[in-house]
């Protein structure tokens, strides 16, 4: 009696441009199942009339570009994706078959969504204007000015009022790039720097440090083979000495190692458990609040000197490269494919 041949199902990974296709495919190929075909394509390579895509595939040890029928599931890894593109895709492949429908989050919108269930973990955050900035500086002495839709720490400014009344304005580093005589002079400089881009201002946190270096705590939250949100790992990016921007970091390590260096094991484990619990609530809240089908996100925390956790931001397109130097983190790439396989059968 012949064995029943299992159907090979196609998962499409949508990326921003053709140059990214081979790089992205290499990351995920090792994690696919034998009965899964992975094809990488861009939005511009969709042929709506023929209901097909021009995609890149690894076949028999070679890179092959050809035309494929639409995949059963699409994993969106584009940072900027038109909502209409995703809607048209789902109209053809089926409802709920395209995940990560929104990869670029508006930081202020996310703050408002989280402020109800997770208010105690959020630093005070308001949209930028001169009056609000002056009030926040008076209250906290340090504030961060961030673009609402920025990423990788680009365009983030740290503002600190010194006891002398001087105001130090810096980018990436604690050392100031500009020293203002007073708050109004600093605001004039900020107006010049920010232009017409929409910014928010966030309460400065008295950060806990590791070996005199700032670190963050990033929880990667992904849906698993059962379609349920779960925390894949928790890592820390250690900033270069003298820097506050962890996006351009000195090194990446497991947060467990950092916390156990700072605290007794029991305390470190309790902090990690809190991070996992808060991150899961954040993921559920953000997906519900955006009304878009998500499959992964990351939640960035800061830890202050009173051992209090603060949610700094939530990222809709987690930077995967930071996990590569750690080793043993294959789940980062495997989970989305497991979730894609789950969607194919549900």
From TrEMBL:
Signal peptide: none annotated. Residues 112-345 form the ATP-grasp domain. The keyword ATP-binding applies. PROSITE patterns: ATP_GRASP. InterPro entries: ATP-grasp (IPR011761), YheC/D (IPR026838). Keywords: ATP-binding, Nucleotide-binding. This is YheC/YheD family protein.
């Amino acid at each position: 009696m012949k064995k029943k041949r299992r159907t090979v199902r196609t998962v499409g990974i949508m990326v921003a441009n053709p140059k990214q296709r081979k790089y992205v495919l290499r990351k995920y190929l090792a994690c696919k199942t034998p009965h899964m075909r992975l094809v990488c394509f861009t939005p511009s390579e969709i042929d709506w009339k023929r209901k097909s895509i021009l995609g890149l595939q690894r076949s028999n040890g070679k890179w092959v570009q050809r035309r494929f029928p639409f995949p059963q599931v699409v994993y969106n890894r584009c940072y900027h994706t038109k909502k209409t593109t995703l809607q048209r895709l789902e109209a053809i492949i089926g409802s709920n078959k395209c995940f990560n429908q929104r990869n670029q989050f508006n930081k202020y919108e996310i703050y408002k969504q989280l402020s109800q269930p997770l208010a105690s973990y959020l630093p005070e955050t308001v949209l930028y204007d001169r009056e609000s900035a002056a009030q926040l500086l008076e209250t906290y002495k340090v504030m961060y000015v961030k673009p609402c839709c920025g990423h990788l720490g680009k365009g983030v400014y740290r503002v600190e009022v010194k006891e002398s009344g001087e105001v130090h304005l810096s980018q990436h580093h604690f050392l100031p790039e500009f020293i203002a005589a007073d708050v109004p002079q600093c605001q004039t400089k900020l107006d010049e720097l920010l232009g017409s881009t929409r910014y928010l201002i966030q309460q400065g946190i008295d950060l806990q440090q590791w070996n005199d270096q700032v670190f963050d705590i990033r929880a990667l939250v992904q849906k698993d083979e059962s379609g349920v949100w779960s925390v894949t790992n928790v890592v820390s990016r250690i900033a270069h000495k003298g820097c506050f921007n962890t996006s351009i970091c000195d090194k990446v390590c497991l947060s467990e190692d950092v916390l156990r260096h700072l605290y007794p094991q029991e305390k470190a484990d309790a902090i990690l458990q809190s991070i996992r619990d808060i991150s899961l609530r954040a993921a559920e809240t953000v997906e519900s609040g955006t009304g878009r089908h998500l499959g992964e996100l990351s939640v960035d925390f800061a830890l202050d000197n009173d051992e209090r956790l603060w949610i700094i931001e939530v990222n809709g397109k987690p930077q995967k490269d930071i996990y590569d130097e750690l080793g043993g983190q294959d789940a980062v790439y495997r989970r989305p494919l497991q979730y894609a396989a789950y969607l194919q059968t549900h």
